[in-house]
Amino acid sequence: MSDHRPGYLPKIIAHRGASKRAPENTLAAIAEAATLGARAVEFDVTISADGVPVLMHDETLNRCSDGQGPVILKTLAELQALDAGGWFDVRFAGERIPTLEQALELAADRGFSVNLELKPTLGWEAPTVSAICDTLKNVWRADMALVVSSFNPLALEQFAAEMPGVDLGYLCDAVPPDWRARLARFGCVNLHCYAPFVTPDLVRDVRAHGARLHVFTVNDPDQAKDLFAWGVDAVFTDCPDVMLEALDDEG
Fold it and tell me: For each of the chain's 251 residues, which pLDDT tens digit applies?
């Protein structure tokens, strides 16, 4: 069941699944995160040439599959014919690029809270967000916690218009000086930022503003302990098992 605090996710969020143990943004990585004890997972979503939401971080297929070129130029059938696991380890050879529907069904089955990052190819914000919203409306259960985030302001604006009841996170690397105005503009309840830019003063200010602060990508338990001591709400990590073992309270 979801926690109904706005923007809430558990403290340890498996980044693209358990991406140190399995190929990122695959069903194998999501399943592995659950096996390791994580209760929240993050994954990146874009669309195929025929408008189906799929999990992929990059605009191209080159890094995380045996394919080449832009994701947006491949149909779903072409994408799912690719090997999305062998690049990581031969044990995962044959792993496929999952659809958002497949990922959501697995996440729901494992009881995950989800951070869905909107990753539209630039210029394709409108069809990407519409397709993702259609899938969420058909598949996602209202009793499961969901936060949707993006670096892309057009994607955030459109998502907020199409699904106003979903909690949003504003994604950035360095936190902009006008972060309060940006949260308000997009209706975001969370600020998600890159770990090197986090300071105790920032954490204090974000919390005083009534927002939650989630930090990426944290794989060092000592760094995570410092961040939590400052008051950070959650961290994204490639190795949730290491974090869970090192931290006393994951809730």
Answer: 445 689 999 999 999 999 999 999 999 999 999 999 999 999 999 999 999 999 999 999 999 999 999 999 999 999 999 999 999 999 999 999 999 999 999 999 999 999 999 999 999 999 999 999 999 999 998 888 999 999 999 999 999 999 999 999 999 999 999 999 999 999 999 999 999 999 999 999 999 999 999 999 999 999 999 999 999 999 999 999 999 999 865 54
3-state secondary structure the chain: CCCCCCCCCCCEEEECCCCCCCCCCCHHHHHHHHHCCCCEEEEEEEECCCCCEEECCCCECCCCCCCCCEHHHCCHHHHHCCCCCCCCCHHHCCCCCCEHHHHHHHHHHCCCEEEEEECCCCCCHHHHHHHHHHHHHHHCCCCCCEEEEECCHHHHHHHHHHCCCCEEEEECCCCCCCHHHHHHHHCCCEEEEEHHHCCHHHHHHHHHCCCEEEEECCCCHHHHHHHHHHCCCEEEECCHHHHHHHCCCCC
Domain that holds residue 191: 12-47+106-246
Q: What is the tally of structural domains in the chain?
A: 1
Name the residues annotated as catalytic: 15, 57
